[in-house]
Amino acid sequence: MARRRKKPAIMQSIIVPGLSLLALLGIATYALLGPTGIIAWTDYRSAIQERSKELAALEKERDALRNRQRLLNQDNVDPDLAGELMRKELNVVAPDEIVVPMK
User: Where do the structural domains in the chain lie, given as residue ranges?
Assistant: First the structure.
């Protein structure tokens, strides 16, 4: 009877640490190779650099649009901008004007 009691104890002393080791290996593998793991950090760094360049371009465009909005304020419209928009959208040109298209 002593042998029967030792076998489960030996099996339990091998199985529990073995399963724990497999669980730790799985967690370590996920921490290294997972979507937010150590290897993915380089991808995140390059993505952040690309996004910061895109953000700078969008901020520049936003500032230009804010300036244009300020110039088109209903209380005080810039006459040059109003004339430019009128000529561009309505194709209105005075007889003595020369149109030079710029691209």
Answer: 2-26+36-90
